[in-house]
Structure formats: C-alpha cells, structure tokens
C-alpha cells in the first residue's frame, strides 16, 4: 500500500510522491534532527478531507504510543547491530488480542534506546518489515525536554493534583518545554502520515504524552478515524485550569472522534473543563455521552483497562513460579503476608502505608511476629529530588519499624527495592493473604487485578501450598479511593490513604474477615477481572470508535483556525455557503417575496452591550419594506413594548414578539396573538418555584414576559447552574403537568410558555396571509442563528411544493455560522448577514428608480 500522505515536506515542495511500499522499501526519516517546532508550524500544509478510496479491504489499526512495545539489545558481535524482540509486558502489545485476527496492527512510537543517526534508516526498515513498527527517532536533548521536562515535570504532577505552588512542588510552566512537547507530537504525526491510508485506517493514540497529536492528524486528514485513551487521571477543573496551555490541550483532544477514560470521575472532570473553559455542553443519549464540537460529535468512553489473562496464566504455569512459591512459603511459614507493590514515586503513598502498618502493630500487639508486610518498590519512572526523598523516607521508616517491633528471625517489614523477575512478583501474589494498594492518586493501577488472578492459582500451585483444589479460593484487597480500579472492585475495603488510623483498621479488618466472606469477595472480583480483560477493553474501544466514525463519509468538512486552535467543521453535504450574487440574482427576477428575519444574534450580536438596532439595521429594514413586492417580518424573543420602541420608524415592518406569541403585520395595526390563551394563571404556580431556585443559585435571574417566564443562569456557575436547571425542569414539569404550557430548556435557560408557541407560527401565518391575498411567494428568505429558529426553517422548507408557495419558488433558509441545522445555507456572521441584506435593499432601490424613470411623462416642445 502506498501512503496517501507525503513522508517529507520536501516531497511536497518538489511535487514528487515518495515511492516506498507497505513493507518493501525504505522509509524516509522525518524531523529527526534537533530543533523545536512551535504550534504555529506546518501552516503551509494543506488540510484535506480524503483522497481516492483505498483498494485495501483488510481493516487496519495504527496504534500510537510514546514507546514501541519492543525491547532492543545491542549485539556483541563485530558489526555491533541491534536485536529486537516484543515487550510482552507492554499494554500496546497486549491490546492487540482484542482487535481480531482480521485487523492488521501497525505501531508508531519511540524506542527506549538511543539509535545512532547513521543506523536509523536500517533500523526503521527492519522494524517495519519484522514487527510492523514505525519508530520515531527523537534527538536526546529534545526527548529530555519532552519527556522528563513537560510530561513528567508539568503534566504528570498536575494530572495527579500537584500544583507548582513553589519550585520544589512540581515544575513551573516553561514555554520551551511546551514547544518541545509540540515538536515531538509533530514528529509522531509525521510518522503516522507515512503509513496511514486515511479513508480506511483507524488511529488509536495513547496517553498524555501525545495529547496534541490529534490536531496534527485532523489538520492533514479532516476525516481521519481517530481515538484517544488517557491512562492517567484527569484532574478537576479547579486544578486543570491552572495550566497555561489548557485550551490548546482541550481543543487538541476534541479533534479526536472518541476519547476514553478509566472512570466516570475522570470523564466528568474533562467534560466540566470543556464546559467551563470552552462553553461546550454534553449530552447523554442511549447510554452514550457525546460533545457537539463544530458539527462533529466527539464521543466519550468510560471503561477501565484490564489485564492480559493469557500472559498471567502462562507465568503461573512456569516451574520457576512453582519453585519460588515453595521457597516463599517456607520463608514466611507461620506468618500472614500483607503485600504492597508500588513504583517508588510520591503518589503511591508507600510511606503512608508503612505508617499505617506501624499503627496496626501498636494497636494490636498480638499481630507482632505473626504479620509481615512485604513491600515491593519498583524503580520510579521519573527522576528528580522528590524521588530521592521518597526513597530515603521509605528506607528510614522501614528501619524504624523493624528496630521497634523486630526480633531475631522476624522483620515486620520486608522492603524489596531491587528489580524482580515477573514470575517472582507473581509468587509473592500467590502467597499473600491481602494486597494493599494505597496510592494517594493513581490512574488505573492493575496490581489488584493481577493479585486476584494469581490467588485463583492452578493445580500445581495448590499442591505447593497444600490447598484442597475443591475449596473455593480467597483473597482480600485494601485499595485507595483515589485509584482508577477502585470503582470496579466492589468487594475491596476502600480507604482514604491519608487517614493512617483508618488504613490500619482496614488492614486489621482484612486479617480477621471470615473465610467464607473472603471466598465470596474473591469470587466476585475474579468473575469481573477474568471477563473484563485487556482484550475485552480493546475490542470495546474499537467497536465504539467504528460507531463514532460511521458518518464520516457523508459529511462535508472544513478546516478552520491556526496552530493548535485548528478544528474541523462537519456539516451535511447539502449545507453550503449562501452566495450573495446568487440570492441577489434570484431576488431581482422574482415578483412576490416573503422575508423572515430573526433579530437577536442575527441582525445584532448576542454579545453586544446594547441590543437596540443601529441606524444601519433600521435603514436596511426600511429599504426592504418600501419595496411593494416584499413582505418583511422580524421575529424576536423580546417583549412587544421593547420592539415597538426600537422599530417605531419602520412603519411597514411586520414584527413578532416573544418568539411568535404576539404578531403585528405593520406599525399601523394592533398586536395580535397567534395562540389563544384564556389566562396565565399558571404563572402563579411556576414563578414561586423559579424564585426558589433563583435564591439558591447565585447569578441566576427570572425574566417575566407577558406570555412566558424564563429562568436564566448565564452568569451562574456552569456546573451548578446546569444541575439546578435539570432539577428546575423536572420540578416545573411535575407541578405544571396538567397545565396548557410547555417547559423547555435552552442555552443557559429554562422557559415556560403556552403550548404551541414557537417561531414556526410566524412563518405559517405569513404564508397563510399571502395565500389568502392571492399572492404566492416565489422568493422566500428565512434567517436565524439558534435552535428556536429551526421551527421557522422547518415550516419554510416543508412548504416547498405546497399550495402556499409558487411552484417555481426559490427558498433560502440560512443559518448564522456553519453548524448543524435544518437550513440549507449559512453565512459566517452578523456582518455577512447585513452585507447580504444590504445587497437586496440596494437591488430594490435600483428597481424603484428604474420604475420611476420609465413612468415619468414625455413632454414634446412644438415651438
């Protein structure tokens, strides 16, 4: 397969396409020299929707992660080349099991080892041919700024709720590190572009190292099928909003089609950030959560990752594992083992766990000599002074506990801070009565899952432990409330790791729980973990990604914005920009015209301090109304008194107030109502309820109209206001269930109004009036900017071909801005709307002058 992208920007300049095949030819290296790319680079690269359909029928997934699932070793022979092998512990490799044999998988990522530039081409070719891996070679200094700098000093602490209040507490924001982060993400994007077939392939990006990668890919291929999964926590908005590049990261993630999180809490925090910082709201429909983002629906998936059952079972079957289990059983004979397995970093709470165990020995002296805490401390993934402090504090605490409570042949705490083989760690799981995972903040953490499977064991291990295979297995878990796997382990004892007394008591409870209870808890956990493994997780993610990308082909896409503010607007294929020349031409050749104009947000900006019309707006409206071929109606949510004052000089203008409840064909006649409402006694029921919510929701107000009541929470806290709006909606629907009113929610508001009142009534009335006069409009223009105007669009569009319009009528339903709508046309903003209307008004003026000249009498002088 030949890629449809260019592997090097130099190829783009020369007009030559690279000629490498899927596996047969060498790949050129992209941006592997030292340097920094800013987020404004690559502006010259064209954004495309898609190219010619691919001939490849096999489904393909491109998995992108910070590191390839490979191990590399320098050979000791004379040529000094490299040996590569799969890293069986890598999640990126394990998830392949759930994608199915018919899905081809290609990996894109960096290598742990530094490869000499002279060897990079050969290594890249070898990895592509042998492993279907595409390596991104990052210069060491750039990689250090990217990984150890921005990722580990800024993103990782912040996502674990650590604010840089001082230079010692996490890294202060450094613009050069951010530029390095963007630069590396760009290198990864270029590598994906080397192998992607944009119409066929799915791309799955993993974790916080590559959060801006979706923007680069979406910019190059507007319809790319792109999923992202975050393996770390996502912090609350109060924490996340302190990040100087918060909007850039959010918008970059929203260039994905599907964004995955381990828990609802993480997803909720992300959605809250989108609401508070970008003004985006989400909807839940049929079990799926989605964000509407410029016409695209960005789906949210919540599913914790699982473990690789096959790998664990194979290690459990090893003779080495059996021998190690027997050794540990002898070592801890007559003692109950509590087990902790953690990385040596500040968020794993090792010291707090040790202090809780010390408290257990103080409060329960009978446990001394009988209970041992084995703490396996894996090397930290980061580096810095905080890691050294954790190491020294841990060692000091272990020494203190052992000196205080130890005796010959008994150390209460066994600290293992040297690397263990996987089978050795498995053996510790097998012989431990309880596993303690008390991190103060962690992403998923699969240690409890591994422990549960290992406690299930097998026949060989049962023999080594002297267990009866027919007796149900047992296990106990003490887990922190602040780790991602906690919600899925309903039988675990959940603790606040900061509460040392509570953790100590949980340890004691785990030791004294009845055997039958331990068996029930283990059975429950084993059933969940064994069925929700890594294959289940990856298969579920791919299914949701396919569903999220289902409509890509039939959507028209435009790329807008610069740098990391780039986004794609996806619209119905029949939705297009209204050409001013086209509508003016249609306007000139028609004889009976109906014009419907929304006011708020269409004729004037919603954000304007003064909402009253300016002289330009009034002048355009008057010029349109003077044309005898036109019937012009202005529709607004404002009350009739305000509209009367604002448009008193527009004598021939038809006006509809309060979304169509009040209508006035021109200035000379009185206001009429479109819907007969005998009285508004329901206001006496609704208003006290609204007042109650206004008093408890700071920033909310009540707007009282003649026909409606509106509760507005535009200036309230977004999350609390939205929550209160849902409660108010339910409350009002309940108390007004038997009243002739409709209760609806809108953008930052809840409205109660008489049933049947909407802007569509105005359109129906206008068409009916012209039909009764024997006038069938052959030109209809309807313009609006929000959801309330969709009723007008629906009436106008459905009238085509009906008795109320001329058979040759030209209908222009136009929205303000490119967004999903029942309208078939759009103009960008209010300025474009007024420019177009001015063009129509000018055409009317020129027509009037022409008629005036031709109607003047001709005088002949006979002298």
Automatic annotation (TrEMBL):
One term under GO cellular component: cytosol
Database matches in InterPro entries: Glyco_trans_20 (IPR001830), HAD-like_sf (IPR036412), HAD-SF_hydro_IIB (IPR006379), HAD_sf (IPR023214), Trehalose_PPase (IPR003337)
GO molecular function (one): trehalose-phosphatase activity
Protein name: alpha,alpha-trehalose-phosphate synthase (UDP-forming)
Coiled coil, from the record: none
Enzyme Commission number(s): 2.4.1.15
Pfam families: Glyco_transf_20, Trehalose_PPase
Catalytic reaction annotation: D-glucose 6-phosphate + UDP-alpha-D-glucose = alpha,alpha-trehalose 6-phosphate + UDP + H(+)
């Amino acid at each position: 397969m030949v890629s449809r992208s260019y592997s090097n920007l130099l190829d783009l300049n020369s007009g030559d396409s690279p000629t490498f095949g899927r596996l047969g030819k060498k790949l050129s290296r992209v941006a592997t020299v030292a340097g920094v790319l800013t987020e404004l680079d690559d502006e010259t690269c064209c954004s495309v929707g898609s190219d010619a359909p691919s001939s490849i029928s096999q489904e393909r997934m491109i998995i992108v992660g910070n590191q390839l699932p490979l191990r590399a070793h320098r050979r000791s022979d004379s040529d000094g080349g490299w040996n590569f092998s799969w890293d069986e512990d890598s999640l990126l490799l394990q998830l392949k099991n759930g994608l199915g044999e018919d899905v081809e998988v290609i990996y894109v990522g960096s290598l742990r080892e530094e490869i000499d530039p002279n060897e990079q081409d050969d290594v890249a070719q070898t990895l592509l041919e042998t492993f279907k891996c595409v390596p991104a070679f990052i210069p060491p200094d750039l990689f250090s700024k990217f990984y150890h700098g921005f990722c580990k000093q800024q993103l990782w602490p912040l996502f674990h709720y650590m604010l840089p209040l001082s230079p010692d507490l996490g890294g202060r924001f450094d613009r050069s590190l951010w530029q390095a982060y963007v630069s590396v993400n760009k290198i990864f994007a270029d590598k994906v572009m080397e192998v992607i077939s944009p119409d066929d392939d799915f791309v799955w990006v993993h974790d916080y190292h590559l959060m801006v990668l979706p923007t680069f890919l979406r910019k190059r291929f507007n319809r790319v099928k792109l999923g992202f999964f975050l393996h770390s926590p996502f912090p609350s908005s109060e924490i996340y909003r302190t990040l100087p590049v918060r909007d850039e990261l959010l918008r970059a993630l929203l260039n994905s089609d599907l964004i995955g999180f381990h828990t609802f809490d993480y997803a909720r925090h992300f959605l809250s950030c989108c609401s508070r910082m970008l003004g985006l709201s989400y909807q839940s429909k049929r079990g799926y959560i989605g964000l509407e983002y410029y016409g695209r629906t960005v789906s949210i998936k919540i599913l914790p990752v699982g473990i690789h059952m096959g790998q664990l079972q194979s290690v459990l079957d090893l003779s080495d594992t059996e021998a190690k289990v027997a050794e540990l059983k002898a070592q801890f004979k007559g003692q109950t083992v509590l087990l902790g397995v953690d990385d040596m970093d500040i968020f794993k709470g090792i010291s707090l766990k040790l202090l809780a165990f010390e408290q257990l020995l103080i409060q329960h002296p009978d446990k001394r000599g009988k209970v041992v805490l084995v703490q396996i401390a894996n090397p930290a993934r980061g580096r810095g002074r905080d890691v050294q402090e954790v190491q020294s504090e841990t060692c000091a605490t272990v020494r203190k506990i052992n000196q205080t409570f130890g005796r010959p042949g008994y150390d209460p705490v066994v600290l293992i801070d040297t690397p263990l083989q996987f089978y050795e760690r498995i053996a510790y799981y097998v012989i431990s009565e309880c596993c303690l995972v008390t991190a103060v903040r962690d992403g998923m953490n699969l240690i409890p899952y591994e422990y549960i499977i290992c406690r299930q064991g097998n026949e060989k291990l049962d023999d080594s432990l002297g267990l009866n295979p027919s007796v149900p297995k047992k296990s106990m878990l003490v887990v922190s409330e602040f780790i991602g796997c906690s919600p899925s382990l309903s039988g675990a004892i959940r603790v606040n790791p900061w509460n040392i007394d509570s953790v100590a008591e949980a340890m004691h409870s785990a030791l004294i729980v009845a055997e039958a209870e331990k068996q029930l808890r283990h059975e429950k956990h084993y059933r969940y973990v064994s069925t929700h493994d890594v294959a289940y997780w990856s298969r579920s993610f791919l299914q949701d990604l396919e569903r999220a990308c289902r409509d890509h082909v039939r959507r028209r896409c435009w790329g807008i914005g610069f740098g990391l503010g780039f986004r794609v607007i996806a619209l119905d294929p029949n939705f297009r920009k209204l050409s001013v020349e086209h509508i003016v031409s249609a306007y000139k050749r028609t004889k009976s015209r109906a014009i419907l104009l929304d006011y708020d947000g269409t004729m004037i900006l919603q954000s304007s301090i003064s909402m009253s019309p300016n002289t330009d707006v009034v002048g355009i409206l008057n010029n349109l109304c003077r044309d005898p071929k036109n019937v012009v109606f202005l529709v607004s949510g404002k009350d009739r008194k305000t509209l009367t004052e604002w448009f008193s000089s527009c004598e021939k203008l038809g006006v509809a107030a309060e979304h169509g409840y009040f209508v006035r064909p021109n200035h000379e006649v009185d206001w009429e109502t479109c819907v007969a409402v005998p009285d508004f006694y329901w206001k006496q029921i609704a208003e006290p309820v609204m007042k109650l919510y206004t008093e408890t929701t700071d920033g909310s107000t009540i707007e009282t109209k003649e026909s409606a009541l509106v509760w507005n929470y535009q200036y309230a806290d977004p999350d609390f206001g939205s929550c209160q709006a849902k409660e108010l909606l339910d409350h009002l629907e309940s108390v007004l269930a038997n009243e002739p009113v409709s209760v609806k929610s809108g953008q930052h508001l809840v409205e109660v109004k008489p049933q049947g009142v909407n802007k569509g009534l105005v359109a129906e009335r206008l068409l009916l009036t012209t039909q009764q006069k024997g006038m069938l409009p052959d030109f209809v223009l309807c313009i609006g900017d929000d959801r309330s105007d969709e009723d007008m669009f629906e009436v106008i569009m459905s009238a085509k071909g009906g008795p109320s319009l001329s058979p040759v009528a030209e209908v222009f339903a136009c929205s303000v801005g490119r967004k999903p709508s029942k309208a078939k046309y759009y103009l960008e903003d209010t300025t474009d709307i007024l420019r177009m209307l001015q063009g129509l008004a000018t055409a009317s003026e020129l027509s009037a002058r022409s008629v005036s000249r031709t109607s003047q009498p001709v005088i002949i002088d006979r002298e």
